[in-house]
Design a protein that fits this description.
By secondary structure, the protein is α+β, with helices and mostly antiparallel strands. It has 2 domains: 285 residues, BirA Bifunctional Protein, domain 2, CATH 3.30.930.10; 94 residues, Anticodon-binding domain (Rossmann fold, 3-Layer(aba) Sandwich), CATH 3.40.50. Helix content is 39%, strand content 18%. The strands form 3 sheets. Strands 1, 5, 6, 7, 8, 9, 10, 11 and 12 form a 9-stranded mixed β-sheet that branches. Helix 1 packs antiparallel against helix 4, helix 4 crosses helix 10 and helix 9 runs antiparallel to helix 10. The longest helix is centred in the N-terminal third of the chain and has 20 residues.
């Protein structure tokens, strides 16, 4: 290829690409999250990366997300085949921007094949037209769970979500975190109680939800632009600043209802919040891990009840590391019946990149191999292969060095790959059915019989915490 024809092979902006150690970390996190999901009985599904645009945009499901449309690019000599490629018809398609809307379509497609309540998890890639910047991607992996009921869904499913969040983040040991819980009915009911009309309520919920991002001054300005009076603005700001223990916040909310007998929706939201909090406590979630935060709303319009956001204590600037909530109409609008659901989502790609940058997580070794069998001399390769297979058969990940190089170079290569143990067998060791076992972490080397090799490797791996 001529120099002038050089292809730009750099990654498109906003589309991440991991090095092996980072990818292994992602897979470890996925395994940990999956184990927690499955302990609570969630079952895996996978939906297509592509959905019909009318599904993704149904009744405003898109929110503020920019959707990537999908169109085939045909070679110049095949332009006449547009119809065969799906172009020119009425079926416009796009890449999914989250997992919840595709879940609703999935349930509609398989309604009579599923058991309800239907509890599923997904760990798929989604696509959004984000402004690409640090920690914000156009392609990223989400780890989601949702429970969807047919006709009704117990609020105890809402209570179960914080228990699952707590188990996950305690398992991956990222430090202290706080699960912030609210209820959209509380917010909507409060706005109604201070005289806002339906036209104002949804914009005001979005404004309140952005408080941490834009600050109080911009919130005040935005509320005034939404045509709230000075008194209403003051009451909204005071409402979102209500703080205290869970019981103290609930008590303050109940006092508000007592002084405003017209606040039926607010009262209903408080009752739901009480039920959820009681369930969270009964599930054994530690009190310091959750709170009620009346500024939490979640931006997507399909949330109708309980909402969650989780932040890392001391690293609040990282934003929410797990969020979600309850929705009543999302699934039902596809099937024509009431199908409430509740779910949470971990934006794993975003979370991992933020935690790596903050030094809270570290990349894993580039290879899963725990042992390298060193190539001392090519005529012993049959023995090296046999020893390698023996180690693999007992569950020890092993690399055989096929290249004939200086032993020091091979040990150096193993160390760079994060392989902690090397097996060294020369002609003398081979005759005596022995080997040298070098621990690259401690620098120690011992000689032992080949028959004892697997057991000794296991012992050393345990000591190394591998």
């Amino acid at each position: 290829m001529a120099k002038a024809d050089k292809v730009n092979f750099s990654c498109p902006s906003g589309f991440p690409e991991f090095l092996p150690g980072e990818k292994r970390l992602e897979m470890y996190l996925m395994d940990t999250i999956r184990q927690v999901f499955e302990r609570y009985g969630f079952t895996p599904i996978e939906t297509p990366a592509v959905e019909r645009i009318e599904v993704l945009q149904a009744k405003g499901n898109q929110g503020d997300n920019i959707i990537y449309g999908l169109h085939p690019i045909l070679p110049p000599n095949r332009q006449a085949e547009k119809e065969l490629a799906g172009e020119g018809g009425s079926e416009e398609r796009a890449l999914k921007f989250d997992q919840t809307v595709p879940l609703a379509a999935y349930i509609a497609r398989h309604l009579n094949e599923l058991q309800f309540p239907f509890a599923r998890y997904q760990m798929d890639i989604v696509f959004r037209g984000e402004r690409a910047k640090d920690g914000r991607y156009r392609q990223f992996r989400q780890c989601d769970i949702d429970v969807v009921g047919r006709g009704q869904l117990s609020l105890l499913y809402d209570a179960q979500m914080p228990a699952i969040i707590a188990e996950i983040f305690e398992a991956i040991a990222i430090g202290d975190f706080l699960i912030r819980i609210n209820n959209r009915k509380v917010l909507t009911g409060f706005f109604q109680s201070i005289g806002l009309d339906n036209r104002q309520i949804v914009p005001c919920i979005r404004i309140v939800d952005a408080t941490e991002k834009i600050g109080e001054a911009k919130v005040t300005k935005s509320l005034i632009e939404a045509e709230l009076s000075d008194e209403q603005v003051e009451r909204v700001l005071a409402f979102t600043k209500i703080r205290g223990s869970v019981d103290e916040v609930l008590a303050k909310l109940k006092t508000m209802v007592e002084t405003n007998l017209e606040a039926q929706l607010l009262s209903a939201g408080i009752a739901e919040l009480e039920t959820v909090i009681a369930g969270v406590r009964n599930l054994g979630v530690k009190e310091h891990l959750f709170c009620i935060d009346l500024s939490i709303a979640r931006g997507l319009d399909y949330y109708t009840g309980t909402v969650y956001e989780t932040t890392l204590v001391g690293h609040e600037a990282l934003g929410s590391i797990c969020s979600g909530g309850r929705y009543e109409e999302l699934v039902g609008m596809f099937v024509g019946e009431k199908m409430p659901g509740v779910g949470i989502s971990i934006g794993l790609t975003r979370l991992m990149s933020r935690l790596l940058k903050a030094g809270i997580l570290q990349s894993l070794a580039p290879t899963p191999a725990q042992v390298m069998v060193v190539n001392m001399q090519t005529d012993l390769m049959a023995l090296y292969l046999e020893v390698s297979q023996q180690l693999r058969r007992v569950g020890i990940s092993t690399i055989t060095s096929f290249e004939e190089r200086a032993v020091g170079k091979q040990l150096q290569q193993a160390d760079k790959r994060g392989i902690p143990i090397c097996v060294i067998i020369g002609s003398e060791e081979a005759k005596a059915q022995k080997c040298g076992l070098k621990n690259l972490k401690t620098g120690e080397q011992v000689e032992l019989a080949l028959a004892q090799l697997a057991e000794e490797v296991k012992k050393q791996l345990v000591l190394l915490g591998k």
